[in-house]
Design a protein that fits this description.
single chain; about 575 residues; alpha+beta
């Protein structure tokens, strides 16, 4: 905002005289410009400013303190007036007749006629709006730290340590890191259209059961958005796929570093709009857009005031924001032009009376949705209570980012081709493994299967057998089981699968010698029923997977006929 002198020069001589009288400054018969300069010089004197500060009431100090503490020392007039009172606007003639400066209606008006704040038009995201402000150089000399009036510093009256103890706790996790790894692996091996609606629908359908975290549509949208906004994936010829260098750099970071990248990515993202994902709300896509950054900035700012290590009620936090910064996402204090419906009734939610159902619901969602998914908050009593985690404290600037050393576990490879991958395995290694295997259940550990299908997928991506062999050896930290070596060698020779399990539960082999080996080996023969000839036999019902595992343990590569 502008400094004091330009502000004073905008006033008429009568207003300058009113302010000068309040500051005990004699302007004599100076012209307007000299009067403004003389008055500015006196008001910017630290001793003079301190004396004027001491004359204010606690309420006036509180209003001024709130304004000085606001970004750029300014606040939308609608917001300021709702909290501290309306400044009556009148021309010089009416002002000189009614003399409102002798009996100000409220703290805001008292400060206005003392020259401690002013009103101007300034640009906001929704256009030119009226703002109340403290001139920049005047704000610098006001002793706002010396006051008996204290703005509440906590979203609850007089927190006692340990005052709130939840009956049930949902501790934060970092599964968003694991699920983004899964998403990147999926995008690497499955062609996925980049068109938003199609992309979202396909990922929800194919990966909904493979997330470690909550399969919430808003969480999935956050994963997709972060992949794009962090540059880990991008559209290429209509396909959404990983960006190799950027994806690898993120995958190779430690888990705390990955959490930080995701948390800061969400904090700074204009593509993910929390309001449009808030449960119970149905925004109409009529062209209007809110700024999602405003709500997040507000939450993070007010979170600096909560007890750093204790639980606090979400409802009290939301109420505190309502009491102190209700227009946090509405720069003009406009509660009528947004088209948002109640999702259950279809009712449009307009006016300040809908604040709790819209703005309050958004704050609640941010704390218990994205911040919980990102590992920033623990939840208690099903979201009634919150507590900042070490990551959450770091994001709000109350602590350094934790980054303890990480010791990734190796993957575990079984002779039958089953591979177990703990969450502590390098995310880059799991990503690479997912490119060359069939995917089993998601969990801790993840389960993957080395099979003909996976090796075919590897070949389609240009991954040669020797690279697969070297990767598995490095990622497992051990020599590969002989059967696994034989499987990969068999594939490298171009022999393809040595056995095929049909949907009809029939085992078919290419040579009589192979079938003879199978039928003469007790641990293989027990899975077979009647012979269908020298190279085929019935598989006992329900034993297909067991037979496949046993065959691969003996170095016989198996593929399932999916036709």
């Amino acid at each position: 905002m502008q400094d004091l002198l330009p502000t004073l020069l905008e006033y008429d001589p009568g207003m300058l005289a009113i302010i000068a009288h309040r500051w005990d400054v004699d302007l004599g018969k100076l012209d307007k410009e000299e009067a403004a300069r003389t008055l500015a010089s006196a008001m910017l004197d630290p001793e003079h400013a301190a004396a004027e500060w001491a004359r204010l009431t606690d309420g006036e100090r509180g209003a001024l303190q709130a304004l000085v503490s606001a970004p750029q020392h300014k606040m939308p007039e609608a917001q300021f007036s709702r909290i501290f009172g309306e400044i009556r606007q009148m021309g010089p003639g009416r002002r000189d007749r009614e003399k409102p400066h002798l009996n100000p209606a409220n703290a805001a008006e008292a400060l206005y006629f003392r020259g401690l704040l002013a009103i101007t038009y300034d640009q906001a995201k929704t256009g030119a709006q009226r703002f109340v402000y403290v001139p920049t150089d005047l704000a610098a000399v006001l002793p706002t730290h010396e006051t008996g009036f204290q703005v509440e510093a906590e979203p609850a009256p007089a927190y006692e340590r340990g005052e709130y103890e939840p009956q049930t706790v949902q501790p934060a996790t970092t599964t968003l890191v694991d699920d983004l790894t899964t998403l990147l692996a999926y995008l690497q091996v499955v062609p996925t259209p980049s068109e938003h609606a199609t992309l979202t629908a396909q990922i929800n359908e194919d990966l909904g059961t493979r997330w470690l975290g909550e399969p919430h549509p808003a969480r999935t949208a956050l994963l997709i958005t972060l992949a794009g906004s962090l540059g880990l994936a991008s559209a290429e010829r209509g396909v959404f796929k990983p960006v190799p260098a950027r994806a690898r750099a993120w995958l190779e970071r430690t888990r705390p570093q990955q959490v930080r990248a995701l948390a800061e990515g969400w904090r700074d993202s204009t593509l993910y709009n929390d309001l449009w994902h808030t449960p119970g709300l149905q925004p109409d896509d009529t062209g209007w857009r809110n700024d999602p950054l405003l709500a997040r900035q507000t939450v993070l700012t007010f979170l600096e005031m909560v007890p750093p290590d204790d639980w606090w009620p979400v409802s009290e936090f939301v109420q505190f924001v309502k009491d102190n910064d209700p227009d946090f996402q509405r720069p003009a204090g406009d509660y009528d032009s947004w088209y948002i419906r109640d999702a259950s009734t279809g009712e449009y939610l307009r006016g300040f009376e809908s604040w709790d159902r819209v703005d309050g619901a958004l704050l609640w969602f941010i704390l218990t949705g994205p911040m919980y998914w990102l590992g920033l908050t623990d939840l208690g009593d099903e979201g009634a209570l919150c507590r900042l985690t070490a990551y959450g404290r770091a994001l709000v600037g109350a602590a350094d980012w934790p980054d303890p050393p990480e010791e990734p576990e190796p993957i575990t490879i079984q002779p039958d081709g089953t591979i177990f991958v703990a969450r502590t395995v390098s995310r880059y290694d799991r990503f690479q493994l997912a490119r060359i295997t069939e995917w089993g259940p998601a969990g801790d550990p993840y389960v993957y299967h080395l099979s003909a299908t996976g090796l075919q997928r590897a070949a389609a991506q240009g991954i040669p057998p020797n690279v697969t062999r070297a990767f598995l050896r490095r990622a497992s930290g051990a020599e590969l089981p002989p059967s696994i070596i034989q499987l990969i060698d068999q594939w490298e020779r171009g022999a393809g699968a040595a056995a095929q399990i049909l949907r009809a539960a029939v085992l078919r082999v290419p040579a009589e010698e192979t079938m003879r080996f199978v039928t003469e080996t007790p641990e293989l023969r027990r899975y077979l029923g009647a012979s269908l000839g020298p190279t085929a036999a019935i598989v006992r019902p329900g034993q297909e997977q067991n037979l496949a595992a046993a065959l691969q343990s003996h170095g016989i590569l198996v593929e399932f006929d999916e036709s």
